[in-house]
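job 3f2a | input accepted
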Amino acid sequence: MEILFGQILIYGPVAFFGLLFLFSYLREPRQFRNAIYLTIFLILLATCLLFGFGQEWMVLPVLLAVVACPVVVVLFLIWNSVLVIRHEGLSMSTALPAVLAVVIVMYLAMVPLLSLLHAPAWLNGIASLIVFEGLWFFFSFVALLVYSWFYRLLPRKRHYDYIIVHGAGLDGTKPTPLLRGRLETALRLWNRQGRRPLLIVSGGQGADEEVSEAAAMKAYLVNERQVPESSVLNEDKSTTTLENLRFSKQIMDAHSGGARYRCALVTSDYHVFRAAEYAHKVGVSADGVGSHTKGYYWPTAFIREFIAISVAHKWPYLVIAGFWLLSVAVELIRVFVH
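job 3f2a | predicted structure (338 res):
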């Protein structure tokens, strides 16, 4: 009985988070919380397997790997930033990996440095808030990375009524290589679907662009890829991913006349999950389909995606700050009482 109770105590949390993830995923796969549930499940499962079936000698290599991981990540991010800058030029976007590497180093050095300098209590208190906020930042980063990869690899054999292609900038009046990649991915899907779905090219005209992204995409599809003009619908008002989906939904609703429909969202592979999550937010029944992104650019692009998703899901940071403020208030009350 004691052994059974011990097994339940050990594997109970694993089963709980596994079932929680499965339930949440089956209910709606386009949710950020799925990333959290899946990552907690994998961490708990790996821990149980290590201590339940592994050998004692395995603990030391695992600990060494955990300790070495930040160093490896920092070096990789710096190397990647140099590589991206060589290909794309220096900008805030291409410097993001190096910026994240600096943040990691500062985060890891903060507590030891404050201890060495015998920092005052109030500064240590602020450092504790940064530590807890940082733990959530890095955990959610890994969680989103794992789940984004998982979500993109899921097989999807469905009939689509519409295929939305998200804009990605222009080179004059022509699609950039990144945007052409999205268009070619959409064309392959369109052909596999028997050329039945309607293609919706989505993207407005930027202040520095000669034509709208939608117009350039439609011209590419019709003039260079011989897609019938009647198969392409223009959405040329949007300036953000969320607007892409809201305005595309208006077009699909009007065109479908109230009938139910399903669509595919074609975007770059690093952008698939956020686009799918936004589709859920605006009430569009959709699956994300990713086009290939050059390997050297993927980390930079994913960091940008993570920042955007973190801004949209900032409540954990607010909760952590709330608990921190509560602890500060309790400590101040204790000082005044005594």
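job 3f2a | DSSP finds eleven helices and seven strands in the chain.
job 3f2a | closed
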